[in-house]
Amino acid sequence: MKKKMTLTVLLIIFAAAVVIAGQDWKSGIAWTKPPIVTPADKPGDPPSDAIILFDGKDLSAWNKDSWIVENGELTVKPGSGEIQTKQQFGSVQLHIEFATPSEVSGKGQGRGNSGVFFGNYEVQILDSYENETYFDGQCGSIYKQRPPLVNVCRKPGEWQYYDIVFNRPELKIENNKVVEVIRPGYVTVFQNGVLIINHHEIEGTTFYHLPPAYEVHEPTRPIRLQDHGNKTKFRNIWVREIPDTNQKPERTREPYYE
Fold first, then answer.
1. 131 near 111, Cβ under 8 Å?
2. Residue 21 gets which letter from DSSP?
3. DSSP code at position 226
4. What is the pLDDT of residues 162-210, one digit of tens each?
């Protein structure tokens, strides 16, 4: 009798498994429909939802026009100071193309130095082709916080590009002080198509003279390009705003089969 019951239970479990195998498992999450974005025909060109920051024509997206626009290129005018976007951004995907000066002068941090800042947080631009410097300050580094995984720099004067994903930090601020880092910032960097920074946690403002620490700032900030005294060139700069988090929405019901 006992054997018969055991066999019956096994048959029931087997039958249920057969039924379930023919059904779709549903997560119970009511996902929203992803919007349609038309990709560019040519890699590196902006998709349909991109915000154009520089297309070779003018600096209308930036706070001042002190840098040189010529032949579709934007060149740092040394001594004129940094430029920053008029629009403020939180988490973004950024594409930017750059070329350090073809005429090499100086060494270390003095060669082709510039930088892309997402508010307080810098991804370094530097001529790091056969040019030694401290590793967390070479091209592609999160300045003074993380060296690139590899050095993929091209020769001076040759065009290179970054594709950067910046996830902004979320800070709890009280009495004009950061009392808690609710969610740190993260940076992912591809240089010339190669992953060089893999979703690295930002430790705070990328100071050159102090250890990193989070400072009070607004959730959205301008994107800045640095004037470090070198005639670094830029072209084809665009950005896409992205959600601040990849957290799943709440389930509307328990997982089920359909």
1. yes
2. H
3. -
4. 999 999 999 999 999 999 999 999 999 999 999 999 999 999 999 999 9
Longest dimension (CA), the chain: 94
| Spatial distance between the Cα atoms of 256 and 239, rounded to a whole number of angstroms | 39
SS3 (DSSP) at 110: helix
Name the average pLDDT for the chain: 92
Domains of the chain with bracketed CATH: 51-241 (2.60.120.560)
Distance, CA of 221 to CA of 85 (rounded, Å): 9
This prediction's pTM: 0.89
pLDDT at 247: 75
- As given in the structure block, the two tokens for residue 26 are 């549903």
Q: Span 148-173, mean pLDDT?
A: 97
pLDDT at 8: 59
Spatial CA neighbour of 145 closest among 224, 202, 214:
202
Q: How far apart are CA 41 and CA 25, in angstroms?
A: 36
Distance CA 234, CA 59 (A): 12
Which of 69-77's residues contact partners 24+ apart within 8 Å by CB, and which partners?
72/235, 73/233, 73/234, 73/235, 74/233, 74/234, 74/235, 74/237, 75/231, 75/232, 75/233, 75/234, 76/114, 76/225, 76/227, 76/228, 76/230, 76/231, 76/232, 76/233, 77/227
